[in-house]
Amino acid sequence: MEENIVREIMAEFRSRTGLLTPGAGTVHRYLWTDAFAVCNYLALYEQSRRDEYLHLALGLVDQVHEILGRHREDDPRHGWISGLDEREGRLHPTTGGLRIGKKMPERLPEESFDENREWERDGQYFHYLSKWMHALCRVSRVIDNRAYTTWAAELAEQALSAFTYTAGDGSRRMYWKMSIDLSRPQVSSMGHHDPLDGLITCLQIRAQIAAQPEMGPHPLESEISDLAEMCRGVNWTTPDPLGLGGLLADACRLAQLQSLNVRIALPGLLQDILDAAAVGLSIYARENSMHLPADYRLAFRELGLAIGLQGIEKIADIIAGRPDIFRNQSRLDSLLETLNQYQPLRQQIEKFWLEPENREKRSWQDHADINMVMLATSLAPQGFLEI
């Protein structure tokens, strides 16, 4: 039943966004949404072994690189963001980063900052880039093609070189948003979970490189060390449902990495993340907006939590199977038991947004692509939660 719904959603997404659809109108690519969509098509492929879903996943990767790896059509600049020529750009499509895919052009250096308009402007977000790195790693695993791992590593190197900087007090920081060409920050504040997401994603890429020894060494060690320092001693607590879902998904990836004997620079990180998630969920459970009608709710934020909650069982299974690695098992088991009490939230969220009348509301329609793709991910989360 759920698999049929996911297929229907992803078929509609293909049509709406012009993905490999002959005769389609404007093709619209948006990096965050497309990263989840790639994982969804991979999940459908692994469930059904139908080549059409693998074709869609790979085609979506190519289309994202061809569109978001290049300057906008309304930009006087042309070609690959990286500045590479056509041949080299196709071989290394991520070395300049990838645009967000917002409808409005980026803010020019001479334009004044407007916080509300900035949300609608193009540029580059690190947390979008890290989601795309994860999607590339998933493709590489499924089809055993090292090119996708190489693209993920090249994207990680370029993004971290551009987004990280040394603050006046000597600490390392990250910008929230950069210009399309990564030459200047557009929003200078740091995303709460960006260093954490970056650290776990780089560890994932490094582990994948190690599993493909023919690729040779790759210089991600300094990036991992830098991110680990940014993560040291941070309280990751948030009551935001999308942020909570991201924490739980990161914890799921981290547990998988640790089970593979991947060296973690911060050995207590998994417990720190789960502690923060437990606190954040207790706040969210008291103050959430799930009693409100659809017009006052944002589906993709709630669905982010629903996705993350489904990683709890996987984490528990991993820890139970590797007592030699997870030496603080009793504390982790206690945290997972606490987190499991919030599983009814996932069912409530999915049930609410599966109701057709709730998907007719403006709050859903205004963000229809991202909402539908994340609903599909929640119904078939293995494509996204697996490494």
Short description:
With 387 residues, the protein is mostly helical.
Strand order of the largest sheet: 1-4-5
β-sheet strand percentage: under 5%
Distance between the termini: 25 Å
- Secondary structure: number of strands: 5
Q: Which secondary-structure class do the elements indicate?
A: mainly alpha
Shape: globular
Rg value: 20 Å
Structural topology:
Layout: H1 2-17, H2 31-48, H3 51-68, H4 86-91, H5 115-118, E1 124-125, H6 126-143, H7 146-163, E2 164-166, E3 172-174, E4 177-178, E5 185-187, H8 194-210, H9 221-231, H10 241-259, H11 269-287, H12 299-309, H13 312-321, H14 329-340, H15 343-354, H16 362-365, H17 368-379, H18 382-385
Antiparallel strand pairs: 1-4, 2-3, 4-5
Give a written overview of the molecule.
Helices cover 59% and strands 3% of the residues. With 387 residues, the protein is mainly alpha-helical. The protein has a domain at 235-387. Strands 1-4-5 form a 3-stranded antiparallel β-sheet. A two-stranded antiparallel ribbon has the order 2-3. Helix 2 (31-48) runs antiparallel to helix 3. It is globular. The two termini are 25 Å apart.
Keywords:
5 strands, globular, mainly alpha, two-stranded antiparallel sheet, 18 helices, single chain, 387 residues
